[in-house]
Amino acid sequence: MKIEHIALYVNDLENARNFFIKYFGAVSNDGYHNEKTDFRSYFLSFDDGARLEIMKKPQMTDGTRELAHTGYIHMAFSVGSRENVDKLTQQLKADGYEVLSGPRTTGDGYYESCIIGIEGNQIEISI
Fold this sequence. Notes:
This protein has helices at residues 13-24, 82-94, and strands spanning 6-9, 27-28, 32-34, 39-45, 51-56, 74-78, 98-105, 111-116, 122-126. By secondary structure, the chain is α+β, with helices and mostly antiparallel strands. The radius of gyration is 15 Å and the shape is globular.
């Protein structure tokens, strides 16, 4: 069994799509639009076969986001090496994204950083 895909509602669908393409090498489909409900989405595919569906629909609510809460907390991307973790973290920081931690080796042995990415969502970057 495998996780088929993860889905994420966003306010700015095109900006979110471009974020994952630019920083994480996503490949996007042409998108889907249900004209009756105005639901829109893109499926983003990554090198290893993982997929992320980003979605938008009218009348979504945007609640407050605490860094520590129950439920979804972050998505993690493996970039292959310490150097790539360092490089991508610095690029995201230079582009104005907040770095929460790292790059560092965690107590359980992961080399990672954690940023606040698109629309306040936490993203972990690891080897």
